[in-house]
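[Discussion] Sanity-checking designs against the backbone

I'm trying to build intuition for which residues belong where. Below is a structure token string of 126 positions. I'd appreciate it if someone posts a full sequence so I can compare it with mine line by line.
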């Protein structure tokens, strides 16, 4: 059985999908980009600010499922320029304890929705 997870503290979906699905004790999140949940505008001042907005959006989705970043077991990071990796990683790292951080992949892609620079999705368990 699946349960739809939704919150107004993260951007509403811009297509036929949900912010997250809880199946049993496992949460599967959709990718988050740097859309501000209240204004609907992209936050792209610089790559660190953009990444922080993505992570704050993800935090809101996790909280809507009564979880935190401690519950995350896997992340997928999609970026449009591998040269931004270190700055993205620096911000991303502030949300996790390095000793218990989740598994992760980082993939460079040609384009992302709304031509953003970074998109992140996660899998978490209770």
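Best answer:
Here's mine. Compare freely.
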């Amino acid at each position: 059985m699946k349960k739809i997870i939704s919150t107004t503290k993260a951007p509403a979906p811009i297509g036929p999908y949900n912010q997250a699905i809880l199946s049993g004790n496992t949460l599967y999140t959709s990718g988050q980009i740097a859309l501000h949940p209240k204004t609907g505008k992209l936050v792209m001042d610089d790559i660190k600010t953009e990444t922080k907005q993505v992570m704050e959006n993800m935090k809101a989705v996790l909280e809507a499922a009564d979880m935190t970043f401690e519950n995350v077991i896997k992340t997928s990071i999609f970026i449009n320029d591998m040269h931004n990796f270190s700055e993205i990683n620096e911000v991303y790292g502030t949300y996790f304890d390095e000793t218990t951080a989740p598994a992760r992949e980082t993939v460079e892609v040609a384009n992302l929705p709304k031509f953003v620079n970074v998109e992140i999705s996660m899998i978490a368990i209770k």
